[in-house]
Design goal:
With about 325 residues, the protein is α/β, with parallel strands linked by helices. It has helices at about 20-30, 40, 50-60, 65-80, 90-100, 110-120, 155-160, 185, 190-200, 220-225, 230-255, 290-305, 310-315, and strands at about 10-15, 45-50, 130-135, 140-145, 170-175, 175-180, 205-210, 265-270. Strand 5 (about 170-175) and strand 6 form a beta hairpin. Helix 3 runs antiparallel to helix 7 (about 155-160) and helix 6 crosses helix 7 (about 155-160). The protein is globular and about 55 Å long.
């Protein structure tokens, strides 16, 4: 039975960013006491990319944001192991893996963690609609995993596909085809989620969107001067690409959302500005305790500030009835 048109339709969108998804999870964890039930019952649609896709799948499967924050804190150091001190062979091995296109990190720890989190469920087992972005390297096309388009694909496979970031993890195979990180084309998946969800919110009088960013690199790049090596150029270009995608998505959603329903509310939770001297602790694969603590504290502060926003309050207020 289709929900009444007077009930708002709610879409939650979660950016990609490796371990920086701990920021997003911490934002949502701070909001949880202010809304009824789990996100799986409260949101009509959850859209995610890369680690944001993992968050989307975890929330849709019934985990709380607090659960997901603990998952990232506990499993992050195993997924992204850090090497310090007199261990020259370990970093060298990572470089060799990258040169051979196998990824900096082996996928086995990530698969084990995801299996423990998501079990053997497939997309059609979820009661909440999701859209998770990836790239099909076999066909060269973009892919969005939903309950309708890929009902029998395992949640673990979707999570491994959307988070197979080039240079960090190898491509993931599903049904004989290779998939990679959806951040290659839509690191901020709000617009993609709206496109997929549109048939479901057609006829609703109110559409509410909450989009949570991840911790971007700071404007402190300005004080760092021009890149001085190829790795620095690559890092700067990747940042410009993902940041530009997110900015364009935000502008597009802000411009076109009012045309989709009589009443619309859109909140984009931006990443905080990180001082340049703290740049190291917020890289997407840095899981030192200081990095995790910074991400967690930034997310908590942002979540606490959001509770006074009237549009966020409306998003959290009551169940949508979907």
């Amino acid at each position: 039975m289709k929900p009444p048109s007077n009930l708002p339709y709610r879409l939650l969108s979660l950016d990609g960013g490796g371990i920086k998804a701990l920021y997003s999870a911490s934002v949502l964890a701070e909001l949880e006491p202010h809304r009824p039930g789990f996100w799986a019952a409260h949101a009509d649609w959850i859209s995610g990319t890369s680690s944001g896709g993992i968050l989307a799948l975890g929330l849709a499967a019934g985990h709380s944001a607090g659960d997901m924050a603990r998952f990232l804190e506990e499993q992050g150091p195993q997924i992204f192991p850090q090497y310090q001190g007199l261990l020259p062979l370990a970093p060298a091995r990572q470089v060799l893996r990258q040169i051979r296109l196998r990824g900096k990190y082996p996928p086995a720890p990530l698969r084990r963690a995801l299996t423990e989190l998501l079990g053997d469920r497939v997309l059609q087992d979820l009661s909440t609609e999701v859209s998770v972005a990836a790239v099909n390297l076999t066909t060269g096309e973009r892919t969005v995993f939903t309950r309708q388009s890929h009902p029998t694909v395992a949640l673990v496979d979707v999570a491994l596909a959307t988070s197979a970031t080039p240079g960090y993890f190898p491509p993931h195979s599903i049904g004989g085809e290779l998939f990679a990180d959806g951040g290659l084309w839509v690191n901020s998946p709000t617009l993609s989620g709206l496109v997929c969800a549109r048939p479901h919110f057609s006829g609703r009088n109110e559409l509410q969107v909450l989009s949570v960013g991840t911790v971007e690199q700071p404007e402190g790049y300005r004080s760092a001067g021009a890149p001085k090596s190829l790795p620095q150029w690559i890092q700067r270009m990747l940042h410009a690409s993902t940041y530009g995608q997110a900015a364009l998505t935000h502008d597009a959603v802000a411009a076109f959302l009012p045309h989709l329903a009589p009443t619309t509310r859109y909140v984009r939770v931006p990443p905080p500005v990180i001082p340049f001297d703290s740049l190291g602790p917020v890289r997407m694969d840095t899981t030192h305790p200081a990095a995790l603590a910074l991400l967690r504290s930034c997310g908590r502060a942002a979540g606490q500030n959001l509770t006074s926003d009237p549009d966020v309050h409306a998003f959290l207020k009551c169940s949508s009835g979907a």
